[in-house]
Amino acid sequence: MRADRGFRIMAKLKVFRTPAGFHDAYVAAPSQKAALKAWGSEADLFARGIAEKVTDPKLMEAPLAKPGVVIKVSRGSAGDHFEAAETQSPPDRGRANTRRAAKEDQAEATAAPVARKPKKMIPRPSRAKLDAAGKAVEQASANLKARLADIDARRRALDAERRTLQAEGDKRVTKLEADRDRVRREYQARLEKWASR
Questions:
Q1: Could you give the C-alpha distances from 161 to 23, 155, 157, 164, 165, in angstroms and in order?
Q2: Biggest alpha carbon distance in the chain?
Q3: Which residues contact 164 (CB under 8 A, 6 or more apart)?
């Protein structure tokens, strides 16, 4: 019964491989996510094409014997040269993070360079609105200056007209006052002559 259960567990396991420096790191895990966790990688090495599923029975033998344990083999050596590396649960988190970063650096170093997409050229901001606003200010200033100049010219003309009107009015009023005074004297003389009769 126990042997049959172990066979079912083994049947669910898959073997995955990723480069690690001068070695290939093998692990038997139920999924790609579990394999990445065993390698200590937060990056999706499968999506990058760095990790892959192993189907060679000879290469699968050692990892399936130790599920969850990362097995390293020198790249290019035979399958019987497998050597155990480290288990899934590291003794110290700080050391695990350092080891994980080293593994990722090694995996990225062996990966084919990824072609970077050219940066999208962002066009320079347009000055159209700023230029239009500047022209509007200049036009408004010019219009104001012209209208003020027109008002000043009309005011000067009105001042001149006022002075002329004042002079002519004063002259006419003076003449009329003289005529009034003359008529008044003549009236007084006739009135006195009438009263003396």
A1: 108, 10, 6, 5, 6
A2: 173
A3: none
Asked if 38 and 27 count as a contact pair (C-beta separation under 8 A), the reply is: yes
Nearest to 73 by CA among 14, 10, 13, 18: 18
Q: How far apart are CA 35 and CA 126, in angstroms?
A: 52
Please give the Cα distance from 71 to 25 (Å, whole number): 6
Q: Side-chain half-sphere of 52: how many Cα atoms within 13 Å? A: 9
The two structure tokens encoding residue 45: 């090495």
pLDDT tens per residue across span 93-126: 444 455 565 555 555 555 545 556 677 888 889 8
Q: Cα–Cα distance between 34 and 40 in angstroms, integer? A: 10
Higher pLDDT pick, 22 / 71 = 71
Inter-residue contact 18 to 39 (CB < 8 Å): yes
